[in-house]
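In this section we walk through a basic example: taking a raw amino acid sequence and producing a predicted 3D structure, encoded as discrete structure tokens. The instruction is simple. Fold the sequence below.
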Amino acid sequence: MATTMLSERENESWDLGDQLWARDPATGAFELLGYRQLGTAAAATHPLDWAGLVGARLSHDPADCAGRPLALFPGEFRYSPATGQPLTPAPHLGSEVWLPPFGGERDGTQRLQGLRLTSARLSLPAGLSPEAKPDDELPLPCDGPCHFIVAAFSACESRLVALDVARGVLSQWLPHSRQWAELACAGGARLGASSLGDDAWSLAALEQQGTMRLFLPSDDGLAVVGINLLAGQCEVRTLGSACVGAPVLWHGRVHVPMIDRDGVVFVQAVRPDDLALERMPVAGLDPAAHRWLRPVADPQRIVWMGSRGQLLVRAEPIGPAGTASFLPWPPGVSPRFDLGGPSLAAGHLWQPCFLRDEQGGRVVSVQLGASGPTLRDAAGDDPDEDDDGGAPRERSTTLLASTTSSATLRVRLDDARRVSSGFGTKESHMTTFELAREDTVAFFAARLSRPWATQAFLYAGRLHLHHPELPVLPGWQCAA
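The resulting token sequence is shown next.
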């Protein structure tokens, strides 16, 4: 720690390594001049909204406040220089990371990507019921669908960031003021909107030396985004052309389908270190195949599914580069995305599809990424038939499964006969949300259309849900 006395009238400068503070010798008041590479907080931001980001300590003692409602001190200070009394640490909201849509990892090293799996621990108290109020309700950041990111972005604690995909707007949640604040794009850059739907959108992220960068698909290209929570800003650099699929970090590179001005679809590979681009032409591509669902990936391949076939990037035996190709669906087979996304079985990825045969057709599972693929009966995927008694049936679908706590977050429809044709209906359903472990905890109920499109995220020790038809973001405290 270095202290510099500038003059009797000027403030002292306190250099504390990763942060710089100034002290007014007349009042003893400290002011943050800079933290790491993030600068300082915006002038209009309440101190309690940013104190936790820099690990500051607090005092409400009049002897420290010098006429102000609150005094802030560097985090290294345990006691007040004026009174010798202990200082209070700023509230700490944790350092967890949640990357939408399923809380994925931030280095691309997990064996499987794109499935409804998270390594985050899912656990709720056993005594919850759908009739009880949530522990917290956050206001919505926008009118339409959003995606929610939780990360520290070089600060001392994680914060909640909302992405309005349709407008290309990022906002952060201010925990003390309990309001959303839009992040300003620095340097005149802008974050482009994305026309990818909820079943197609996802992001890639990479954390290096404590700094996280996001790779977001947009209609302008792949946006490389750095977020400064302290200053309330983001830096955006856009690469390539319009994204027609979502990016994935795979074998050390970010891969994303794009379309050029001539209407040609290709895969763009981006090297994260220097953002160098490598265009990968797609062999055998159907010219009419332009839109791709959220990718799934294992160590051997990336798969973006579309209505006409699969867009694949396969690993090469030598070197980081892969080869891109188009694989049509087998003859007589069409995908049934309305029955859900891919799943893992017998060490392979499978997608529900419809096979037309002499008996009219049936639902099957098709192995992804394989030419001449194996087809197998999709047990449990066939539409429910009404029973003679007319008793209501229930149907549940998984939103998220934890690989750490062996818990499954799912929605249960109380009248499944109304969705017997699959998940393509837009009708509303009485829906119960439940977390299944050793025991099943039903904790929330609402009437929603497409409840299987509900997003879940963990922030500050609470499990939150987002659905465009819910007026708030309800949250439940997780069990210890």
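Looking at the output, two observations stand out. Confidence is low (pLDDT under 50) at residues 3-8, 380-393, 418-423. The helical segments are 47-54, 62-65. In the next section we compare this with other chains.
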